[in-house]
Amino acid sequence: MEFDGIFLDLYGTLTAGDREAVETVCRSVVQNSGVPLTAHELSVIWGNRFFDALDHHNGDDFLTLFDLEVKTLRETMAALKFEIDPRPYVEQLSHYWQNPELHPEVCEFLAALELPICIVSNADRADADATIDLHHLPIDHLVTSEDARSYKPDRAIFDLAFDKTGWRRERVMHVGDSLQSDVGGAIAAGIRSGWVNRAHRIHDVGTYRPDHEFKDLWELEALLRTNGRGS
């Protein structure tokens, strides 16, 4: 197929995964609260609650990513019979959102890619802007969950991306590292999906089947190189 452009996820796809950041935060929670779990165990329990919350906070019920993290960490600990103030821990996590490292191939991949890019990210706008500015990422468009009041896999965030780009739905693929958010979101939006399977996510609740699977972004570039832009 030919492409007008590519929708790309940001965190975990272009940037290094958040596993270390999340587990560092969870390690602090465990140490300070005494909850009888490992940092990894807490990260999975919190993650399950967080991903479930994404499905229920779109449109009129929208909360920013920061507020959702605060809400779900508070609820996670309350369910374990521990009370904490979650905000300092989420503020620690927000440092990652604004200062993540990139995967090694990202800069060369973006320089080699001839197609325009729209970042479609479950992120607060200020965090995504900070990351793009920090690394001088040459992207054409950015749509965040805060812009759309919608979290992948909800369709509305993709609809806003199509409104902003003017690209044809049949000539776009969304690529990301989450089976749930990215592959599931692409399916909901009626577009092709690509899964970057770097095999080091903390936990992925998704079971969707992508149209394409890549071990890194170079495999995506190889696929795109065989396809024209079209008119």
Structure characterization notes:
With 231 residues, the protein is of the alpha/beta class. The chain folds into 2 domains: 5-17 and 101-225, HAD superfamily/HAD-like (Rossmann fold, 3-Layer(aba) Sandwich); 19-98, Orthogonal Bundle (DNA polymerase, domain 1), CATH 1.10.150.240. 48% of the residues lie in helices and 11% in strands. It contains 10 helices and 6 strands. A 6-stranded parallel sheet has the order 3-2-1-4-5-6, with helices on both faces. Helix 1 (19-33) packs antiparallel against helix 4 and helix 2 crosses helix 3. It is globular, with a radius of gyration of 18 Å. The two termini are 12 Å apart.
Give a topology summary:
Layout: E1 5-8, H1 19-33, H2 39-54, H3 65-79, H4 87-98, H5 106-112, E2 117-121, H6 125-135, E3 141-144, H7 145-148, H8 156-165, E4 172-176, H9 179-189, E5 192-196, E6 212-214, H10 217-225
Parallel strand pairs: 1-2, 1-4, 2-3, 4-5, 5-6
Helix pairs in contact: 1-2, 1-4, 2-3, 3-4
